[in-house]
Amino acid sequence: MGERVSFHEQAMTRPEVIERFGDLHPPFDEQAAVVEANRCLYCFDAPCTSACPTHIDVPRFIKKIATGNLEGSARTILDANILGGSCARACPVEVLCEGSCVMHRYNKQPIQIARLQRHSMDSFYESGVSLPFEAGPEMGWSVALIGAGPASLACAAQLRRQGIRADIYDARSLPGGLNSYGVAEYKLPLAESLREIDMLSVLGVNFQFDTWVDAERLAEIEREHDAVFLGIGLGGIHKLGVSGEKLHGVTNALDLIAGYKSGEIASISGRVVVIGAGNTAIDAAIAAVRLGADEVHIVYRRGPEQMSAFAFEYSHAKAEGVRFLWHVQPVRVLGDNSVVGIELSRLTTEADGSVVGESGSGFVLEADLIVLSIGQATHTGFLGESGRDGTKVQLERGRVLIDRMSGQTSNPKFFAGGDCTNGGREVVDAVADGKRAGIGIAAWLEAQRGQH
Amino acid sequence: MENVQASELLHGWRRNVANIKPTLETTFCGIPCINPFWLASAPPTNCGEQVMRAFDAGWGGAVWKTIGEPITNVSSRYSSIDWEGRRMMGFNNIELISDRPIEVNLREIAEVKRRYPKHVVIASLMVESKRETWHEMVQRAEDAGADGLELNFGCPHGMSERGMGSAVGQVPEYCEQITSWVKEKARTPVIVKLTPNISDIRMPARAAKRAGADALSAINTINSITGIDLDTLEPNPNVGGKSSHGGYCGPAVKPIALNMVQQIQADSASALPLSGIGGIGSWRDAAEFILLGCGTVQVCTAAMHYGYRIVEDLQDGLLKWMSEKGYATIDDFRGLSLPNVREWKQLDLNYQIVARIHENLCIGCQLCYVACWDGAHQCIHLDRTSPVPDTTRTPGMVEAEAAKRISTTPIAKLDAGKMGLNSAITPLERIPRVDEEHCVGCNLCSLVCPVENCITMERVDNGLPFESWEERTAKGLVPPGQAVMTTNH
After folding, report:
1. Where are the domains of chain A?
2. CA-nearest residue of chain B to A66?
3. ipTM score of complex
């Protein structure tokens, strides 16, 4: 058996793509980090810590930067959030830690928590120190984790720290899920996501890649393990349901982002139309700009007030040159073999809030590429059809129902966390879910042993 | 009727204030000064070229870098304390007196005085403890045209090992002896510079006064080791891997200097015209030294940090403050704070204040809460949203509750109605409450609060008359055995 090749070394992002997707928030240099760290007031029961889904002790890790204890700072971060490096880059901190900073009420800029967190994590990686935690003494239990995204990774790390075997199954050939393939490269490069997973792998996590888990495989997995964690995320992006959707040149935002990150897409030319105005739509639109598109439009059936993208994402997209068309909806995709355009019609909002088409308002937007980003379906079919034998776990509108504190589903042997339970939030939410579930699984297994 | 008079008085006062054109001109132990800002004897006054540039920048006087038999310095010579990103909050040196020949220094003093006759040049002197040597040095300095002499009995490093500097200042008898030798010869005012490295600075001050000194200057630098390099284990400043105790100065030492200035000025056997030194960097610092009785102030570290140009705001700021307060001259406010410094036993035991948190200014950092619990008297609580006051929740309990809270990223689509994280308004549960009944009025919360005027200390009228420990003891109200207990006297 040869030397294991690190995940980090397997990142396939093309150099020219990496170059075009430079850091959105460049790192601090050492002195600037200390100056910024010293601005932190060291609040007691700090609002930033409360706002963070993983409850990183923010003032504590920041003060450690100020005292020059960078390794301790990274340990403080990792203790709460095993993907602290990814979260430092990918988190929408404007609505989390930085958004809750007391400096807002003091007529001052909030502390740049994300950049400070990245500073600690970057220097931790550079120092070459290994993960400051060890696997706990083996307890003899094993847990299967379906999906190798942030929820499963955080859960697996927690299980390993408590001496429980963690086997992760994923359909892809590299771990990380959306953390690796779904976050804009200028926020979180694929290689960085993989590097973090290399680091936590030293706890002894087993990965089963290229494994598609269907109902049959799930039954097998369930038999072989003491508990199952579902970190399966969401399914594919919804279809428009209009004619021409199958033409060459129609794709979706997640495939586009995964495509350029994995090296399959090197550049984009011509005109691009992104349908939808969520955060993923913005990531895809900006990616199209950076990959060389001549013109990028985002079209949305409501107005800017109703868009689900964060305000700072909207500003970012405008700054990158993305154009927005509000109150329009696709009628059909035009083209013979390949896309040449999209027909749109104008919408008006009635007094009761419903949106209706204006007759005769149709117009055509020329396009060489159409990117759908109108929300993700759920991916719970393999858990069984409701109605017949009943599902493995109780679902609600496609989401797996869990006890928020322990991650336990209606089926005591099954736990879940991340997008499949919350409908699609952030990496940090998935990490928090996974960590709570890891603790929940260990406690449940312990209680089970007590009963037998 | 009373109101009308009061308002007329106020008007009159305002008119007077508006008419006052304050001046910084003053006289210090007979030496006329265009302003009270002198550069202390140190590297900024090393040579004539520097002193003339300093005068051009606006300094009123300079105490020349101490003149004596030339010495050899080491390299490096300085080190400092940085504080949370600010440089040189405390500064330390192991440089000795002038390394230039006596005749060169004196020639340059003559040149400066010829070109700047209205500016003050004080010759700082340190020579061997011999009567004739001092006589000769005094004669030469005065012949060069110095306006006065400062006797350096304070330098704490190097020179003290050779029986000079603080070795003299620490022994009142030596201080008195040498001062009297100098006074035998001197025709110009003699200023004795005191070392703080002594348990009671009044002892050398009294000795200098007994010997006929015309003025004092205080403080010289404080013995210090500024820090140790945690990689090499060698202290700073590093001279080939070794260091030596140096003289500490800069902003960090101002409170020590103010205390010593007050001790000297409050002691009739010590009090003389005093040139204040120690951490002065702004007009505010200067005003404080003058309020405790100083006639001039001397500056070094701030000028070493930022250059001579800082004197512009020293003048501008002090003049503006004088004009605002209605002081026409330095003497108008000199020493005005001295009566307000008392011995502890004379303070009013019945004076009562409590902390008040102004909710509209509170940013919710809760630093006052943890400071009061861990560092004071456990009378600030986080119970504004509790149904009843809860004075039993410890910081540990608050943190444990917070750790159990589940937070998620707010997303518009999923959290309709819950968005709008309004960070501009402090949530009520984060605004601490003072238990005024138990508050001892220690000030700690108002000191840790980062927002100005958010926590104020408010007078509580308890109806009790003034009563000091001294009075209470005199009335026999203190049980025997406790009456002798005092703080440091």
Report:
1. 25-127, 142-235+388-451, 250-372
2. B84
3. 0.88
